[in-house]
Amino acid sequence: MSLREQGLPRAGLVDAYAPRPPDGLSTIIQFVDKTLVIAELEARKLRHDPTEVIMRAIQPVLWLLVFGEVFSRTHAVPTGGLPYLDFMAPGILAQSVLFIAIFYGIAVIWERDLGIVHKFLASPTPRAALVLGKALSASLRSLSQMLIIYALAWLLGVDLSWNPVALAGVLCVVILGAALFSTLSLIIASVVKTRERFMGIGQVLTMPLFFASNAIYPAAMMPPWLQAVARVNPLTYEVDALRALMLSGGVSAFGLGADFTVLLVAVAIMVVIGGKLYPRVAT
Prior knowledge:
76% helix; single chain; 13 helices; globular; mainly alpha
């Protein structure tokens, strides 16, 4: 029996069996699922090569043991009544997250040379999910540094806060900081496309970001022009939030709401830009 004989219009039958576009919730679920898949693939690399975690821990350990101990004795930095090691520990955690994340883009260039980027781009995974997944994997690497710095700070007598809510807040800040700077790193890799140029730009960026922040000295000590730079430096807000959450009785200079807002907005902007530029890695 034909469609006409059944009284069914052809267009109506086609519409009835046509695939429906996913609704908003399904789209979000698919995006999150693909993001986590990419993050899990990246995390396997860390599990297979844990020596990187140990090597990355050397620098923050030296900063706390040498720089921190020396300046604690000189009392040269006004810290508002905090022992200098207490003041410095959150800044060194932020520094460790920055140094891990800002060089993460080099892995993207290696993946391009191995043909992995082309496979990712040929998949139906949204570009933003690829970028966010890689950002989350950088966060996993940073969490290992967080454990090491917490252990060392405790051994050095830093008055840490063990409140579960504060620890959860530190965890969120570390994840956001790593996601922000690793995505910035991916954007740089998408633009420069060569390992040599990437390493040069990465080294140039890390020092200004670190020293133009409140990581190892208060912003009040800076000249006015550097204070203005620190105000727009997202690392400043990451350190401010860590200092309020890590330390017993810690206080945020800007307010935790402002700190988290700056970090969230910065991550969102970087993920959008990274998603647009990521295909350029393969060209």
